[in-house]
Structures are given as C-alpha cells and as structure tokens.
Amino acid sequence: MTTFWDIFHLLTETPIFFVAIIGLTWGIMGGALPGISASITMALVLPFTYAMDPAQAIALLACVYIGAEYGGSIPAILIRTPGTNSSAATVIDGYEMNRQGRAGEALGISLMSGVVGSLFGLAMLILLTEPLSWLALAFTPASYFGLGILGLSVIASMSGGSLIKGLCAATVGLMISTVGTDPISGVTRFTFDVPDLIGGIEPVLVMVGLFALTELMSQSGSGSMAQLNASIRIKLPSWSMMNKLKRSQFIGCILGLFEGLTPGGGGSIAAFMSYNEARRWSKNPQLFGKGSEEGVAAPEAANNTVASTAMIPLLSFGIPSSNSTAVLLGGLLMHGLIPGPRLFEQSAQVIDSIYVGSFIAIIAQIGVGILILPACIWLVNRPRHYRAGFIFALILSGIYTLNNSLLDLGIALGLGVVGFLMRLARFPVLPMILGVVLGHMVESSYRRSLVLSGGDMRVFLEDPIAVALLSLALIFIVFSLAREIRDARKAKLKEIHS
Amino acid sequence: MNKDLLSGAVLLAVAGTYYTWSTQIADSTLSDEIGADGLPKMLAIILGILAVCLIGRALLAMGLRPATAPAANAEEEEDDNAPMPRALGFLAFGAAYVLLLPFVGYIIATALLIGAIAIYEGAPRRSWIVPVAAIGGGLFYWAIFVKLIGVNQPIGSIFQGLF
Q1: Burial profile A279-297: b = 16 or more Cβ within 10 angstroms, e = fewer
Q2: Which chain B residues contact residue A397 at CB under 8 A?
Q3: Which chain B residues have a beta carbon less than 8 Å from that of A427?
Q4: Which of residues 117-156 of B touch A (CB under 8 A)?
C-alpha cells in the first residue's frame, strides 16, 4: 500500500520531476506537429527509455501522452489542422475563435479544460486501477488466455470498417510474436540461425515501424503546411469563464472516463461525443460552430481525461484500449513489467511514479504550456524537408539504442514498408500491434492451461473467469460484426438510392 | 487491380510461406501436445482462410459492380498518402544509412541522412542551409546519444585506427 510519505518522497525526488517536465515538453511539441499523433510521439521516445530506470521510463511515457493531448490542440486552433486525432473536434470552435481574433483565449480554454480533464482522469486512475487489478490475483493460465482473447477482441472495433482486414492484420501480428524461443519447449522458431532473433522481435520495433516510419513515408513529398502566427500568446480564462465552462467540462470528463475504460474507445470518439452533448446541454447551443468557448472546453476536457483513464484497463489487466496505451504497454513489457496486481505489489514504485509524474505534468502543463508555445510555433513553422530529415535520424538513432543492432534497424525499416502498404490497402495497424503485444501471453497461457489439464479443453469452460472473459470477447465481436453488417447495408441502400 | 484482391493474394502467399517454414521447426522432448509448431501452423491456416475470404469478397464486389460504373466508393479510391515510389525512395535513404553506419560512423551517416532527406523532400540543392543543417544535426544527435545518454554509436571502420 502506498503511503503519503511514499508519495511525498517521490514528489521531492528530483529525477521524477525532471522526467515529468521533459515528458510533458516532448509530448506538447510532438502533439503540436501535424501528422505526429500522441502514439507516434510516444513511440519516438520509447527507445530512449530502454536504458532508463523502469519507474522513470513509464512515468516519462505517461507524461508524453498527457502533453501530446494538449499539444494537438495548438495547430487545431491556429491553423485548422489537428495535431492529433483526438483534437479534431477542437478545430470546429477553436479555429472559429482564432478567426475572430480570440486565438489566445481559445488556447487558454483548451489548456485549462485539459488540466481539469487530466486531474479528473488521474483521480479515477488512482481510485479504480488497484481495486480492479486485484481481480487478476484469482487468474489461472486459462483466465489469462481469456484475458488475451478479450484484448484481441478490441480488433473488432479497431478494424476501420472491415473485420476481415482487422483479423488479417492481427494474425500477422501473432505470427511476428512467434519469432524467437518457444515459451514451453525452448525450441527456436523462425530465427534462420540469426542470434539476434532468438529473443524475438521487440514490440517497440513494430510500433516505431508501423506508426512513425509509415507516417514519414506517407508524408513524403507533401506540400508545406500553413504557417502559424508567431505573435500569439495564451490568455488563461478568468474564474467567471471557468464557472461558465464547468458544465461542458463535466460532460467531457464523464464521457472521457467512459471512453477511456472502453476497449477501442479513444480520445477522438470521446471528444466528438462530448462536443455533441455539450451542445445539447448548453444554454447557448446556437453559438456552437461559431466560436463557442464551451465547444473548445468539452472536447479538450474529454480527450485529456482519456489520456489518464485509458491507463486503467492497461494497468489492471494489460488491455491496451488505444494506440497510445499499446505503446505504453510496449514500454512496460520492454522493462519486464507485467500489468496486473503483481505490478502493484512488486513494482509499486512504477505505479507511484506514473501517478506522481502525471500529477506534476498536469500541474506543470499550465506553466509549460504558456512558455513552450513560441517553441511549438517555431517548430511547426520549420520547413518540412528539414523536419523530416531530423525526425528520421532521431527514429533510426533511437532504434539503434535498443540493442546496438543493425538488424533492429532493418526490421523497423521493413515494418515501415509493411505499414505503408497496409495503409495503401486500408488495413488497420492497431490489430497487428495488439497481435505482437498479446501473442506471447495468449500462446503461453493457452498451452500452460492444456499442460495442467492434461490436454483437456474443458479447462477453459470450467474456469469462471475464463468463461466470463471469453463470453465478453464474443459479445464484443458479435456486436462489432453486427454494426459492420448494418453499416454495409446502409451504405448499399444509400448507393442504390443515389 | 483491385486492392483487396491483390492484398488477399499477397496474404495467401504469406500464409503458404509461413506454413512451409512452420513445418521446419525442430521437435523437442520438452514439448507439450501442441508443440512449438502448433500455433504457427494454426495461424497460417487462419490467415489462409481470411485471405480466401478477402479474395472472395473482392471478386463478389467486382462481379456485382456494373462494368461502366465507377468504384463503389469514389472516396475510397482516393488517398492522401505519398505515391509508392516516392515513399519507398524515402525509406531507401534509411536502408543506405544502415549500410553506411558501420563504415563511416554515426556522425557522418546521420549528417548524410539529414542532408539527403532534406534535398529529397525539396530543400534547395545549392542552399548553404542544407550542409549546415546536416552537419549540425549529426553533431547534435551525437552529443545527445553518445555524450548525454551514453549509447555506443558506431565510430566507423574507416576511422577505427584513429580513435
């Protein structure tokens, strides 16, 4: 159990403070770059965390996530280009406020609503994660298999309209996870006598390849972006304005909590839902779309809440509900940390660091957000051709840092090509990443269950937790499939009518 | 050729190749009933089935669509990605970096990468900014990775005797 003194000690410890500020700063700058999502910003920094203390490394990633969610709103407000997917809803009224000469006010509302959402999300993270994780103590290998399948069922809602493509991507991800040493017999598989492959392909390589390199390749040769006005400064909202915004912020927080807990939810869905609900419950719904302050506050509170609440299923059960939490899971696994109750027991310092680091990052966001805005504007205004070269060099240098291996660089570049081809053919990449991340757990728990039961498949039906988790996964898949069929029918009817 | 049809064919080939490799996994006396090759073989079969479904769906869609009609969803055919040769060209610089790194070392390889990408992405070739950004970038990253983080980046075989 974490005591007040543990927290106090962490708060006064210098490294975690610096880690939080560096993570926050990097997150805001990465999020502010159009095309660089929160997950890419996290994936870029992931290799650097390899040599770090695990607690500081995970805190750094969590703070990058928090920073990126705010950073994404800067170009959304200033140049009508969301820096991250979840800040897309902020464009509607944020950019309108900018056009009315109220850019500083919009940035201030975005910043403070983000702080409110983040604090609420952090409180929920602290309150809900540990109790939920204790459920995992009763887990048998069969339950872990059920959990792995439930995690993989997220694919159903992440398949971007084609369940077959999502399943294909997940299967390829599972295939990648089989490279290396077999978890039961110790036999090597698909290593082709290359010693560097005996340990398998690290999820971080897959993430960097599929997210960051694919994005760089896709943006190659694209035109220059609109330039930001360098003279803009943040204007923090007054108390009366914050009072006026409390209803929309509350809506954003609640929907952010709900979406963060839901596998496949994510910040963008939460942001758009809260924008709609804020308009529905607003005293001035007619102002939405015309520069409404509430129209900026609701989505920003929502996507910043998700940045914290999405960590609840991740830390409790190891289920990543979004791209960003998949990267965070990659960070945990890279440091040999397995989510669940043992993480709270054996690596309590990691959990404390996430809480304390996130708290520092959220509070520091106000000061850093104001100070860093000119730097963000400078960075976004750099010519795209130099920026691409610097980011590419940063990615390759970071990958080499992992194992000092040229093979890792080759694998990441190869996966960049795979990711680009997947993008061209409209295959979702998250299922593939989930396959890589969860593959080992699914295979080892499945085979251990059968070893323990003497090969009796009924072991999965006799374990109540396994039955519950497998049923949940089935329900999730059936609902997603039904939605896909319904959407396809609607599209067909629309086509016939047109 | 229809993208889904092509993807299905590629995935079918991947499934076939992966299955063939799975059959070459060595047996072990420590192995359980399923064996080290159990999951890989199952995954290959699943991917094969999914690939056939994808191909079937693509063929069905092509058959249902009138010959004169445009694509079912015109928006679907448009994308904002870079053309494939351009994107692959971008990545080729990464491959060249991997090949050069052991020979010329971290600073020079990184500087060459930054400069080459900048020109490839449209920086004026004769501008003095390109070499300055490239050399500055190489030194900047060397300072961060080697001096600050302490990573052993390659010195380069051509400089091996000098350091």
Answers
A1: beebeeeebbeebbbbbbb
A2: 106, 110, 141, 145, 151, 153
A3: 7
A4: 117-123, 129, 133-134, 137-138, 141, 145, 149-153
Q: What is the pLDDT of residue A176?
A: 95
CB hemisphere CA count around A163 (13 angstroms) = 17
Residue A366, SS3 per DSSP: helix
Quick check: A171 and B47 CB within 8 A? yes
Is residue A3 very low, low, confident or very high in pLDDT (cuts 50, 70, 90)?
low
Q: Which residue from A221, A384, A388 is facing B86, i.e. has the nearest CB? A: A221
CA distance B84 to A470: 41
B56, B59, B63, B64 alpha-carbon torsion, rounded to 10°: 60
- As beta bridge partners, residue A180 has A189
Is the separation of the CB atoms in A91 and A82 below 8 Å? yes
pLDDT of residue B71: 47
**Whole-complex ipTM:** 0.88
Q: Angle formed by the axes of helices A4-12 and A14-32, to 10°?
A: 70
* Separation of alpha carbons A139 and A136, rounded Å: 5
**B74 pLDDT more than 70:** no
- The closest of A306, A234, A233 to A271, measured between CA atoms, is A306
Contacts of A84 (CB under 8 A, 6+ apart): A31, A37, A38, A68, A69, A71, A72, A267, A303
pLDDT in tens, A461-487: 888 888 988 898 888 788 777 877 887
Backbone phi, psi, residue A328, to 5°: -65, -40
Contact B30 A427 (CB under 8 A): no
Report how far residue A46's alpha carbon sits from residue A350's, in angstroms, rounded to the nearest whole number: 16
Distance separating alpha carbons of residues B89 and A228, to the nearest angstrom: 30
Q: What b/e string do you get for A399-411 counting C-beta neighbours within 10 Å, with b at 16 or more?
A: bbbbeeebebbbb
Nearest to A244 by CA among A359, A109, A131: A109
Give the C-alpha separation, B53 to A473, whole Å. Answer: 22
Answer whether B100 touches A (CB < 8 Å).
no
Better pLDDT: A318 or A10: A318
First-residue to last-residue Cα distance in chain B: 55
Q: Of A218, A161, A181, give the one whose Cα is nearest residue A34.
A: A218
**Position B107, amino acid:** I
Q: Is A180 helix (H, G, I), strand (E, B) or coil?
A: strand
Q: Tell me whether residue A450 is exposed, middle or buried, using C-beta atoms within 10 angstroms of its C-beta: 0 to 12, 13 to 18, 19 or more.
A: buried
CB B36 within 8 A of CB A187: yes
Spatial distance between the Cα atoms of A229 and A217, rounded to a whole number of angstroms:
28
Residue of A nearest to B72 (CA): A495
Q: Do A213 and B25 touch (CB under 8 A)?
A: no
Return the pLDDT at A337. 85
By the 8 A CB rule, do A413 and A423 touch?
no
Report H helices in chain B.
3-22, 38-64, 74-77, 84-104, 106-120, 129-142
Q: What is the DSSP string of B144-157?
A: IIIIII-------G
How close B162 comes to chain A (CA, Å)? 22
**CB under 8 Å to A336, separation ≥6 — which residues?**
A54
Show residues of chain B in contact with A446, CB under 8 Å. 34
pLDDT in tens, A68-81: 888 888 878 877 76
Instruction: Please list the residues that pair with A189 across neighbouring strands.
Output: A180
Beta bridge partners of A181: A188
How far away is chain A from the Cα of B155, in angstroms, using its nearest Cα?
A: 12
